[in-house]
């Protein structure tokens, strides 16, 4: 499902967002959000329960939902949520025209991957999807492991 070309397509977006961005530095939602800042990428944290997230790069205001993104058609989305939530995130991403999603390890199950491959009742998600087995990490494609390679391939590093 995912290839290096899919990763390049993900990083070709001018903006990024992290669904499941966390205020807790021990959680992957915080680590992934911080990774984007560490690589000087414009990123929006999405967290309905917190008004801001603090990282070593400052305090960042959050938005509550994908619908609050200022320019969803030009925003690639990293997802760090449980599979049932991820399924709904993909449906919303499709509705908003988000061009690419990266489903971090642990965020998908077979139903999510099927929808991500465009196999849903409504035709499934139609954008580029980085997910599932592959990449260089143990749990599948992960921006923390595979992101720099993708940035280089997209000419952003």
Give the helices and strands, then pairings.
Layout lengths: L3 H8 L3 E5 L8 H11 L4 E4 L5 E4 L2 E4 L13 E5 L3 H14 L3 E4 L6 H7 L11 E3 L12 H11 L4
Parallel strand pairs: 1-2, 1-5, 5-6, 6-7
Antiparallel strand pairs: 3-4
Helix pairs in contact: 1-5, 3-4
Explain what you see.
By secondary structure, the chain is of the alpha/beta class. Helix content is 32%, strand content 18%. It contains 5 helices and 7 strands; from the N terminus they run H-E-H-E-E-E-E-H-E-H-E-H. Strands 2-1-5-6-7 form a 5-stranded parallel sheet, with helices on both faces. It has a two-stranded antiparallel ribbon with strand order 3-4. Strand 5, helix 3 and strand 6 form a beta-alpha-beta unit. The longest helix has 14 residues. It is globular, with a radius of gyration of 14 Å. The mean pLDDT is 94.
Separation of the first and last Cα atoms: 25 Å
Counted beta strands: 7
Could you give the order of strands across the largest sheet? 2-1-5-6-7
- Radius of gyration from the alpha-carbon trace, in angstroms: 14 Å
Q: On the 0-100 scale, what is the average pLDDT?
A: 94
| Helix-strand category | alpha/beta
Overall morphology = globular
């Amino acid at each position: 499902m995912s290839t290096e070309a899919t990763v390049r397509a993900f990083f070709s977006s001018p903006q990024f967002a992290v669904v499941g961005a966390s205020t807790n530095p021990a959680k992957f939602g915080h680590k992934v959000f911080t990774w984007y800042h560490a690589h000087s990428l414009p990123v929006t944290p999405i967290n309905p329960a917190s008004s801001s997230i603090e990282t070593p790069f400052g305090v960042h205001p959050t938005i509550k939902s994908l619908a609050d993104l200022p320019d969803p058609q030009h925003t690639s989305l990293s997802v760090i949520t449980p599979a049932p939530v991820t399924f709904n995130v993909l449906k919303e991403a499709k509705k908003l025209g988000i061009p690419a999603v990266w489903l971090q390890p642990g965020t998908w199950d077979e139903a999510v991957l099927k929808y991500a491959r465009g196999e849903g009742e409504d035709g499934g998600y139609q954008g580029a999807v980085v997910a599932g087995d592959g990449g260089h990490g143990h749990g599948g494609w992960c921006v923390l492991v595979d992101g720099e390679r993708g940035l280089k391939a997209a000419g952003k590093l």
